[in-house]
Amino acid sequence: MLRSAAIGAAFLALTGPAFAATFTFETAAPVGDDKVVANGTVFLCDGTVCKGDMNRKKASVRDCKKIAKKAGEIISFGNADSQLDAEEIEECKATARK
């Protein structure tokens, strides 16, 4: 009985809902490639809009800065539940790849 409970718990841990959410960022200028790899995430891009799944629930300035170093000036960043505000975007822009 204990063994089956342990196997069941392990199965649930592997198949349970992940904390991943689809994040979108938009850049001021088109991204040169069709993808940006930043912060362990591959973002697929179409022009100035890029999307990728991150193991996060909330958007953070820290993540935005890491992306900006690779993609350039970010004008919006977030997911369906969490967006950076104007002040946070300005902080992110300071580290953008030139």
UniProtKB/TrEMBL annotation:
Pfam families assigned: DUF8200
InterPro entries in alphabetical order: CC_3452-like, DUF8200
Domain of life: Bacteria
Signal peptide as annotated in the record: 1-20
UniProt-recorded name of the protein: Uncharacterized protein
Keywords, ordered alphabetically: Signal
Keyword Signal: yes
Species this chain originates from: Hyphomonas beringensis
